Amino acid sequence: MKGTRPLNNSEISRVSSAFTGNPYEIRNRGLFMIGVSTGGRAKFVVC
């Protein structure tokens, strides 16, 4: 996607902390961190 940029560490921490209080918190945070660490698009990480 044109115009996107990588998240910085502060943004990653803020997004990661938003998964609290959810029954699927560990799964969702894990998928997010895999996507961030591999640079994958959301469409490819979820499939």
Mean pLDDT: 85
Task: Write down the Rg.
Answer: 11 Å
Number of domains: 1
Total number of helices: 3
Beta-strand content bin: under 5%
Euclidean distance between termini CA atoms: 18 Å
Give a short account of the largest sheet.
none
The helix/strand class is mainly alpha
Number of strands: 0
Large-scale geometry: globular
Low-pLDDT ranges: none
Elements, N to C (H/E): HHH
Estimate the helix proportion, in percent.
55-70%
Overall description:
This protein is mainly alpha-helical and 47 residues long. It has one domain. Helices cover 60% and strands 0% of the residues. The protein is built from three helices and no strands. The protein has helices spanning 9-17, 25-38, 42-46. The relative contact order is 0.14. The mean pLDDT is 85.
